[in-house]
Design a protein that fits this description.
By secondary structure, the chain is mainly α. The chain has two domains: about 90 residues, Arc Repressor Mutant, subunit A (Orthogonal Bundle); about 70 residues. It is about 70% helix and about 5% strand. It has eight helices and three strands, in the order H-H-H-E-H-H-E-E-H-H-H. Strands 1-3-2 form a three-stranded antiparallel beta sheet. Helix 3 crosses helix 5 and helix 6 runs antiparallel to helix 7.
């Protein structure tokens, strides 16, 4: 641990958050470094350059560049150009609800839609097959397809409701009812 971290509890807490956010990233379908960069930018009070991200996380330029581009592609991070400077800066979306909607939209596109397409193809291929096993298989696939379709619809509505205050309000009410 550096002397700076020993003296600065905020830096220590931030480093711990970045590490933990990175560890959780794989559960959300993104790699650890991408999640760490997102956490770093999310908790930064100013936009950061690729070099600053590299220095802070001790990662290569290629790794930083690739993951920054991916975060920009997701819409979680935006590129900022400062007048009179050649360097490109990056800043994270700070609104928690917007971040949730962006992640929901990307997970839907990358995971739910391909799964739904595969389930529907299996359902179609087995629809006319004869026999008890084929009928049971088709019934199970159809049930899965319907459930994933409902999840797809729900995620679609959530990801398009970035300005909505209803769901965050409901979530807040649910958390209060547990206490």
């Amino acid at each position: 641990m550096s002397d700076k971290e020993n003296l600065d509890p905020l830096a220590k807490a931030r480093d711990e958050f970045v590490a933990q956010w990175g560890a959780m990233g794989s559960a959300w379908g993104i790699n650890r470094t991408m999640a760490q960069i997102h956490a770093l930018l999310m908790t930064s009070d100013t936009a950061m350059t690729t070099d600053e991200v590299m220095d802070d996380l001790k990662i290569s330029r290629g790794n930083a560049h690739q993951n920054l581009r991916e975060l920009v592609g997701w819409g979680l991070v935006r590129s900022v150009i400062r007048k009179g400077e050649r360097k490109e800066y990056f800043e994270s979306e700070k609104d928690v609800w917007r971040m949730f909607c962006i992640v929901a939209r990307e997970r839907k596109r990358r995971e739910i839609e391909p799964a739904l397409k595969a389930l529907r193809a299996c359902e179609e291929q087995t629809r006319g097959l004869k026999g008890e096993k084929a009928a049971a298989f088709n019934k199970q696939i159809r049930a899965l397809s319907e459930f994933v379709g409902q999840a797809d619809t729900a995620l679609d509505r959530i990801s398009r409701s970035e300005q909505s205050s209803i769901l965050p309000l409901m979530l807040k009410m649910l958390s209060k009812s547990k206490n």
